[in-house]
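Risk register update: the risk of archive-format incompatibility is retired. Evidence:
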Amino acid sequence: MIDQAMTRSLDLLTRFAGSDLAKRLGLLEPTQRLVREGTKRGFQAADAAVKRFQPLIKLVKPARAPRVGGDLSVFDLRPTEEQAMMQKSVRRFAVDVMRPAARAADDACAPPAGFLAAAAELGLAQLAIPEEMGGFGGERDPIADVLVLEELAYGDMALALAIAAPLGVVRALVQCGTALQQSKYLAPFAEDGGLAAALAVVEPRPLFDPYRLATRAVRSGEGWTLNGVKTLVPLASSAGFFLVAAAAEGLGPRLFIVERDHQGLTISPEPAMGLRAADLGRLELVDLALPEDALLGEDDGSGLSWAEMVDSARIAWSALAVGACRAVLEHVIPYANERHAFGEPISHRQAVAFMIADIAVELEGMRLLTHRAASRAGAGIEHRREAALARIQAVDKGMKIGTDGIQLLGGAGFIKEHPVELWYRHLRAIGVMDGGLLV
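Archived output:
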């Protein structure tokens, strides 16, 4: 197009310069100068245009910047095929079984009859037990545990705690138990994963710190004597035995196996604001005498250290918070789109849309911190800082997400017609539950 326009213009100017009209008007010389100058500048412009566009003309296909590439396994959040299958199976159980049972279980302050047996069919306990102990588990996989806990809490956090509490006991026995302890207490889990047992760590005092236990264990003859109080213990009315955390004389914080019928142990129900379906209770230990082999593991503390157990519990609680917060998000989005006010969906209001967006952002941050801590735990890398960060995020943002969920539903959030008020009460528990679960 540039060549055609230049040729046509010069042709017209040349014809005019050679005409009698140009001579009569005295424009012959100016017109000839214009022709010469136009020809010169025209060819310069055409040459520049060709040089400018020539590289593009040579392209056969669009140019694209190459990807950096590298090893995705360094930070790859995609679940493996085995993890994805487990996640899908647990999600189906959460939606089909846990969601419909959550409200009645909250009112009854206990899981429904047969619930733990139904949950046992998922095979989670057997997956946590190595093959040589009668299970069919392999390597420890905290990421898989986190995915499972998130899906369970998506169904209902309280019922998820009822399922996870025995799994924490299994983890502790696998990682720390002696051969005798594993034979006596772990073998039944391999045969029947629906057994009830729980860790008792939390104590009824403000600002509870799992590193500063008030429950004491002192040496007494050939055994131990325990005194103290434990609170918010799941499956309190049905557990066959508990792993009770106590400050052991000369050893520091340790776990002790306490069977339900031990003299000196008093169990009482303790319904709380949230997590009611987990059958929470209080344990009072008064001069409770235990044999030497009731101390979990060896005197040298081989197996998981107490700090590792606390970190593991914090990761587990963070995973439960992620699942419950995801349930809140997936409930408020369709509600905001379907609820109309002033002739339009309330999601069209910026205040509503921004609040939902904030929930999604904070939820993603919680999930990333939790997965980061779990992945480092699985790799055997120091992860105390990461576990603490995940807990801080879960405590602060989990409670905010629960509050925002209530706010987004307005008056409907205050009644039991919607499950958000139940999830809100569960999320309030994250700040006080520090310990009692293992991944």
